[in-house]
Specification:
elongated; Beta-Lactamase; Phosphatase 2c, domain 1; 23% strand; 417 residues; 10 helices; 38% helix; five-stranded antiparallel beta sheet; alpha+beta
């Protein structure tokens, strides 16, 4: 018995050394099967991973000469595999041909299976797979000591496999984090760093993504006709897909506006181009505000976006700018119409995405349009920077410690002398 115990310890040490020298899951699996077949003198070894029987899949199937066994699903007793997977208890059979509970299994008879051992791979009381070894030539080749040794090796291997998976996951996550950071930097470069100077107006913008990348954007585009286009958009989705679609929409809109055609024609053309590329079903709400240098007239075009709010300096009242029409990317035949509006010195126009009014607090309440209006009602004499600061501060105070759910984007346009 002492000799058997010593051999068991030596084997476990060798296995631990072998599988502890790498964090590559595939290498660990191969080492485990090679070690198992060697110490148990098994003819063949199989390793499967999966928490449930229906999820089990063969990862390694090797003969004692380390040759890969093809089509392993047709080379083992699935009756044994099923019992171990469902009961999480080891199985040892001296002669599968004479086992009553295996007598009806076609695989046992067709493969002429004899000695079989199968044990679960257990980590913290949970099965993550199993190890199966057999010998088709001899009966009674495996003993209870062999089964205990196989289970001990499997337990050691299970921990190593889980650690390797965690390491692999961390490596992949770090790579994804790096790629997302690069994507965020690229996307941030698409948002204007500085607002343009245009006679008669002061423009300021605010862009804050809820995730690493965003579906919101705003842009300032100097058109060939001298009009400054202030635009804002919000892609219907979130995350990476929305960020990619945002880049497509922004580029298409910017290119479409670089003509002398009326804004409504440019936006209609942009919609047709976006529809042609929008196979994912995503769309973007959009608003166009055209500023004419030195003139107190603005041009607006709506594409299903939240209508901007205007603070009328003369009366202190709030007005909603024209809205309506479908978002870009839904209906290729949609026509967009522009409207010209008179503005006066001291007026302020706020363009915003629904990340402002849809901000949620700990009680699952929305910030809402009424709270936004209340804040704007106190900003009649404030400049563009101060208005954005007031709104952002109010939204932050409202959310408290609740994580930001949606991207938050605003542009404030103050009518000056």
């Amino acid at each position: 018995m002492a000799e058997i115990a010593l051999k068991r310890l030596e084997t476990l040490y060798q296995v631990s050394q072998a599988i502890g020298s790498t964090l590559n899951v595939e290498e660990i699996l191969n080492v485990v099967i090679d070690q198992v077949t060697a110490v148990t003198e098994a003819e063949r070894g199989f390793l499967m991973l999966g928490e449930e029987f229906d999820d089990l899949s063969f990862q390694v199937a090797r003969a004692m000469d380390q040759r890969t066994i093809e089509s392993p699903e047709f080379q083992v007793s699935m009756g044994v595999v099923e019992r171990v997977a469902k009961e999480c208890n080891p199985v040892l059979t001296d002669d599968a041909q004479s086992e009553t509970w295996l007598s009806g299994r076609a695989s046992v008879s067709s493969l002429k299976l004899r000695s079989i051992m199968c044990v679960p791979l257990m980590v913290k009381g949970k099965s993550i797979g199993l190890v199966y070894v057999d010998n088709r030539m001899q009966t009674g080749i495996f003993t209870q000591n062999d089964l205990e040794l196989l289970q001990a090796v499997a337990n050691t291997a299970a921990v190593a496999i889980e650690n390797a998976k965690l390491h692999q996951f961390e490596v992949q996550r770090a790579r994804i984090d790096r790629e997302l950071e690069v994507a965020r930097q690229i996307q941030s470069s698409l948002i204007p760093l500085h607002a343009p100077e245009i006679p008669g107006y002061v423009i300021r913008g605010c862009w804050r993504s809820a995730r690493e990348v965003a579906g919101d954007f705003y842009d300032f585009i100097l058109r060939p006709n001298g009009e400054m286009a202030v635009v804002i958009g919000d892609v219907t989705d979130k995350g990476v897909p929305a960020a990619l679609f945002m880049a497509l929409a922004r580029t298409t809109i910017r290119a479409s506006l670089m003509t002398d055609a009326p804004a409504e024609t440019c936006i209609t053309n942009a919609n047709q181009l976006i529809c042609a590329d929008s196979s994912s079903g995503m769309f973007v709400t959009f608003y166009y505000l055209g500023l004419k240098p030195g003139k107190q007239t603005v041009t607006v075009v709506s594409a299903g976006h939240n209508p901007p709010i205007r603070i009328v300096a003369a009366s202190g009242e709030l007005e909603t700018l024209p809205g309506g029409s479908l978002p870009l990317g839904i209906e290729v035949d949609q026509d967009y119409k522009q409207t010209d509006l008179k503005v006066a010195e001291g007026d302020l126009i706020l363009l915003y995405t629904d990340g402002v009014i849809d901000a949620i607090n700990e009680y699952s309440e929305f910030f809402g349009l009424s709270r936004l209006s209340d804040v704007l009602g106190l900003c009649i004499t404030k400049n563009a920077d101060e208005v954005l600061e007031e709104i952002e501060g109010s939204v932050n105070a409202f959310m408290g410690d609740t994580p930001q759910f949606d991207d938050l984007t605003m542009v404030a346009v103050k009518c000056a002398k």
